[in-house]
């Protein structure tokens, strides 16, 4: 784990990825046809906030990003991400983002992290498909205890999850959250989540 991740660089990379797929995301939005434009603006605003508070603690950076985003855009998607940033800032007080909590970070960012049975069930079902031959790991015990994200990280550490599997896990996670309830948001959310997670993991190497 690095001492401190450059949140501004991470979120700028996400904004760049969203800009790359902006037109596809616009087409996926069958109501306003501007979801791609909205997502790029959202993550540019988050990047600006992170850059402005670069010397602050992660929780403070995230809280400021939430405030700035609420001021910049009244779109439902922007407000949903502002809510997620606020939730992450509250849960990450005194913590640094790491490989061990990256999935939890994403879950909170997308409006998850509550006690939703649907959320827990979808993630548990996905993970359960990987544990048949893993008697040497405590993944089954984690699943029984509801610690689904730790189970995912154990599977990842044991090299049982490949790239496509990990992308499937991230999509399952996104689909169980508030962001993932609309098709165009689920599409952009999966793009955001996979980009963020891969960036964080690469920075931990």
Describe it.
With 205 residues, the chain is mostly helical. The chain has two domains: 7-106, no CATH class; 117-163, no CATH class. Helices cover 69% and strands 0% of the residues. It has helices at 7-20, 22-28, 35-52, 58-72, 76-91, 102-109, 117-128, 139-144, 148-157, 163-175, 183-204. Helix 10 crosses helix 11. The chain is built from eleven helices and no strands.
Structural class: mainly alpha
Share of residues in strands: under 5%
Instruction: Calculate the terminal CA-CA distance, rounded to whole Å.
Output: 8 Å
Order of helices and strands: HHHHHHHHHHH
Largest sheet, described in full? none
**Mean pLDDT score:** 81
The low-confidence runs, each spanning 5 or more residues with pLDDT under 50, are none
- Tally of contiguous helical segments: 11
Approximate shape: globular
Number of distinct beta strands: 0
Radius of gyration: 17 Å
Helical amount among residues, as a percent range? 55-70%
Q: Into how many domains do the coordinates divide?
A: 2
């Amino acid at each position: 784990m690095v001492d401190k991740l450059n949140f501004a660089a991470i979120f700028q990379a996400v904004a760049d990825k969203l800009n790359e797929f902006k037109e596809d995301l616009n087409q996926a939005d069958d109501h306003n046809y501007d979801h791609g434009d909205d997502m790029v603006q959202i993550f540019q605003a988050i990047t600006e906030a992170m850059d402005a508070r670069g010397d602050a603690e992660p929780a403070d950076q995230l809280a400021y990003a939430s405030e700035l985003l609420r001021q910049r855009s009244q779109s439902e998607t922007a407000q949903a991400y502002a809510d997620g940033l606020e939730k992450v800032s509250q849960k990450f007080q005194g913590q640094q983002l790491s490989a061990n909590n990256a999935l939890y970070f994403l879950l909170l960012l997308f409006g998850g992290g509550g006690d939703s049975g649907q959320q827990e069930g979808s993630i548990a079902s996905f993970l359960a498909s990987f544990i048949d031959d893993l008697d040497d790991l405590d993944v089954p015990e984690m699943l029984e205890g509801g610690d689904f994200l730790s189970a995912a990280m154990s599977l990842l550490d044991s090299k049982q999850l490949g790239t496509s599997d990990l992308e499937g896990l991230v999509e399952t996670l996104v689909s169980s959250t508030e962001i993932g309830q609309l098709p165009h948001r689920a599409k952009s959310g999966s793009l955001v989540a996979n980009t963020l997670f891969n960036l964080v993991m690469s920075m931990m190497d």
